[in-house]
Design brief:
The chain has 466 residues and is of the alpha/beta class. It folds into 2 domains: 9-137, Leucine Aminopeptidase, subunit E, domain 1 (3-Layer(aba) Sandwich), CATH 3.40.220.10; 144-461, Aminopeptidase. Helices cover 34% and strands 20% of the residues. The protein has 16 helices and 20 strands. It has helices at 28-35, 37-45, 81-87, 102-114, 122-125, 139-157, 165-176, 190-193, 197-203, 244-247, 255-269, 315-328, 342-348, 360-373, 407-416, 450-461, and strands at 9-11, 18-23, 55-59, 65-71, 91-96, 130-134, 182-187, 211-217, 224-229, 231-235, 275-285, 297-298, 306-307, 333-338, 354-357, 378-379, 397-398, 425-429, 433-434, 444-445. The strands form 4 sheets. Strands 7, 8, 9, 10, 11, 14, 15, 16 and 18 form a 9-stranded mixed beta sheet that branches. A 6-stranded mixed beta sheet has the order 1-6-5-2-4-3, with helices on both faces. Helix 6 packs antiparallel against helix 11 (255-269), helix 11 runs parallel beside helix 16 and helix 12 (315-328) runs parallel beside helix 15. Bound molecules: ligand BES, manganese (II) ion and zinc ion. Residues 235, 237, 285, 312, 314 line the site of manganese (II) ion.
């Protein structure tokens, strides 16, 4: 396993290519007039007037592909070139005319839109595709981000039988290796001996051993940034088993871990001036005679006891032990990402992951970066009046709050109890999935919020070129 090569982007070396014009709807008539009556008539026959993401192809004199036009609509979608990546026939293209979204977003959008998961369709993987020539100066940053996101999407799209805790470990090693990051691993019964009782309890029912993956990279004296990602490689719900519909997509329950590995790649590849740590509790929430049960009381790494109200609220348990470990060294910034609750989707839908933080400056930086990078997120409160809902009856805490409402908030409040020494903590409750396609976002796995997070980290800890 290794980071993917973004072969749909090519450094522009002057080779021949089909001209690709990007034209907003408002500019369409002027553009068409300038190209002569043949193009205007052909566009009319095709009902093309610069609609967003729509592509118009024109033959040259010999009947080959002469020119391509990408509609920009209102011109408000930075990733619109993602639509061109799938709509254009195989071939090599060069952006002509006005620089609509800038070279960076054209390349990034194109690459994100070109993504397809073909691991189990080798015949499809071999078919030709559209490739974009990119100004050499813009290529490395766009390709770095695209590689991180393709990689994370591949991990999430992989079926659970090909992506268990061991394979997630392999993926972490693949991210670590090119950057000489080190990995510490705590696996199986060692989780008990080394005091990660909840990671062990959730993961012990599976024949695939649970583990904590702990990656470290960078200068020990640099600011400490730690990423924690939920690595539940399949979530059956445990003894509180999910319905068939509820379980259908639960291969994506390691989407937080996948995204944090993608972000780690960006940080290390860009050489940001941080001491990076990535902690991934990798487990399968399975059912067997050894499964943890409703009503059980678990010890935790932090010392708080947790009663199990529902074995399907497993993510917060494995994250709590990882967060407690992360918190021990008092990092400057602790970022947690998890497919934690169905309630998050009810609140804000697939496209807009909720985030939770007490750090106002970080929230403001993230909001600005989310807009600038077109990587949306929405802040929800760590509402303290609901904190009582996670008090346990016989233990310090319960993993299933005493209310059917505000489930994403009470899950965030639960995690927050395990973070006490960290200077700044933020948690994202992501879907890790695109259900309705948009340019740059094919249906299936998604790595959400990591481009915005990278922008914040780069602004705080990076060099200008990163
Ligand atoms: N992995 C799920 C959350 C989830 C469900 C994410 C659907 C994305 C789509 C999580 O482990 C879970 O099952 N959460 C429960 C918590 C409840 C039992 C307190 C939920 O959200 O229903
Ligand atoms: Mn669950
Ligand atoms: Zn889960």
């Amino acid at each position: 396993m290794s980071l993917p090569q973004i072969d749909v982007l090519i450094a522009d070396d002057g080779r021949p290519a089909v001209a690709l014009h990007a034209v907003a709807a408002a500019d369409w008539e002027a553009f068409a007039a300038g190209q002569g009556p043949r193009l205007a008539a052909w566009a009319k026959a095709q009902d093309f007037s610069g609609q967003p993401g729509k592509v118009l192809l024109l033959p040259d004199e010999a009947g080959g592909l002469g020119l391509a036009v990408l509609g920009l609509g209102k011109g408000d979608d930075k990733l619109i070139f993602g639509a061109a990546a799938t709509a254009l026939p195989a071939g090599t293209y060069r952006i002509a005319g006005e620089d609509a979204v800038g070279a960076h977003f054209a390349a990034l959008g194109f690459a994100l839109g070109a993504y397809a998961y073909n691991a189990f369709k080798p015949s499809k993987a071999k078919t030709g595709r559209a490739r974009l020539l990119v100004a050499p100066a813009a290529l490395p940053a766009a390709a770095r981000q695209a590689a991180a996101i393709w990689f994370a999407r591949d991990l999430v799209n992989a079926p659970s039988n090909a992506m268990g805790p061991a394979e997630l470990e392999t993926a972490a090693r693949a991210v670590a290796a090119p950057h000489d990051a080190s990995i510490r691993l705590v696996e199986g019964d060692d989780l008990v001996a080394r005091n990660y009782p909840m990671i062990h309890a959730v993961g012990r029912a599976s024949v695939r051993a649970p583990r904590l993956i702990d990656l470290t990279w960078g200068d020990a004296h640099a600011p400490k940034v730690t990423l924690v990602g939920k690595g539940v490689c399949f979530d059956s719900g445990g003894l509180d088993i999910k319905s068939a519909a509820g379980m259908a997509l639960m291969k994506k329950d390691m989407g937080g871990a996948a995204a944090m590995l993608g972000l780690a790649h960006m940080v290390m590849d860009a050489g940001l001036k941080v001491r990076l740590r990535v902690l991934i509790p990798a487990v399968e929430n399975a059912i067997s005679g050894d499964a943890y049960r409703p009503g059980d009381v678990l010890a935790s790494r932090k010392g708080l006891t947790v009663e199990i109200g529902n074995t399907d609220a497993e993510g917060r348990l494995v994250l709590a032990d990882a967060l407690a470990d992360a918190d021990d060294e008092g990092p400057d910034l602790l970022i947690c990402m998890a497919t934690l609750t169905g309630a998050a989707r009810v609140a804000t839908g697939f496209e807009l992951p909720p985030l939770f933080t007490h750090d106002e400056a970080l929230a403001a930086d993230l909001a600005a970066a989310a807009l600038a990078e077109q990587d949306p997120m929405w802040r929800l409160p760590l509402w303290k009046n609901y904190d009582g809902w996670i008090e346990g009856k016989v233990a310090d805490l319960t993993n299933a709050a005493d209310s059917a409402y505000a489930g994403s908030i009470t899950a965030a409040l639960f995690l927050n109890r395990f973070v006490t020494r960290t200077k700044s903590f933020v948690h994202f409750d992501v879907a890790a999935w695109t259900d309705k396609p948009r340019p740059g976002h094919p249906v299936g796995a998604e790595a959400q919020c990591i481009r915005a997070l990278f922008a914040v980290l780069r602004n705080r800890f990076g060099s200008k070129t990163a």
